[in-house]
Amino acid sequence: xxxxxxxxxxxxxxxxxxxxxxxxxxxxxxxxxxxxxxxxxxxxxxxxxxxxxxxxxxxxxxxxxxxxxxxxxxxxxxxxxxxxxxxxxxxxxxxxxxxxxxxxxxxxxxxxxxxxxxxxxxxxxxxxxxxxxxxxxxxxxxxxxxxxxxxxxxxxxxx
Length: 159
Ligand code: ACO
Fold this sequence. Notes:
By secondary structure, the chain is an alpha+beta fold. It has 6 helices and 9 strands.
């Protein structure tokens, strides 16, 4: 349930160059260290802070001048379900609008039911299925909600 008081106290900003990158959070969203380290090299990391502590992160990648892809989004497990994920998505939308970007993209697994719900609620629409993406790119089988994570579902939001 949305916690309005908590949300008021969360600051989201670009990570400072001397701050530790919250790899633990990022690996919750994407268990492949290989994949995370590849896209981090060409992405911006933004963090959510509560009382100066990093409690959330969002990784933004711009494949071209007109597109922003959210590569990774994560909230500390004990603070999930309170509206912080939605707040991070709103923040990424504001950044896109400021940069005159027209298309936002986000991808998640066929088994990530809660995430698919959240992204569609935030205005993203399913546009593509990258078949067997997780079978080809991840060494171990992944299961969520009793479903095998096999395909990458791509969602887009036009601004
Ligand atoms: N399961 C069920 N419902 C969910 C889930 C979930 N995993 N995530 C969000 N929701 C629902 C909430 O219940 C809420 O519904 P409501 O508005 O009807 O009450 C709505 O979506 C908004 O949720 P928030 O509270 O804003 O989301 P939250 O702060 O939990 O952040 C996030 C969502 C980032 C997915 C978080 O749950 C998380 O860190 N999960 C683990 C990492 C992860 O899976 N990241 C995404 C991978 S895909 C990618 O990174 C591109």
